[in-house]
Amino acid sequence: WSYYRLNSASHNLCLLDEEGQDPMAKSSFSLQKLNGATPTAVVDLTDAYEGRASAAFRGIAMIQNRRAVLVQDEFDIKAPCDVVWGMTTDAKIDIAEPSRAVLKLKGEELVARVLSPAGGTFAVESAEQEPPQKTNKGVRRLVLRLPKASGNVRIAVLLSPVWKGEDVVREAEIKPLQSW
Asked: What is the mean pLDDT of residues 73-99?
């Protein structure tokens, strides 16, 4: 991917009831397949969400010969809570459809699609912060909110660069991270 694609956006981990992960928690890879057409990794983040989830995993896979990235989060949430998936970016974000957003920066485009849960919708929020943190002036967040989620929760978002002369990757097989 171009320098833009690597440096114009960051992906943040999910928040449960507006709380991030325990910064002292330990995580480990439960799967790593780094070679081939579909590099894949799954991280066990259960300790990072202790108290709120009895299990937490994130999977990332480059799919369709590395033409797109699937980001999939799975939780077993102990008690109903608001789950927020987010991506922080300098790009302009257009919500093309409730479950599809187009990010644009410096002539490049990236299409984000909610594949799971069914009916999941994107919103755009400011990522600006107060000092002493970096202020992030003009920076936005693409977010997906699941209010009062409980039990087994899966969020799957497909990130597809718009490649010149090629179709955008529009779908990916969604299966449990245990099966990756």
From this structure: 95
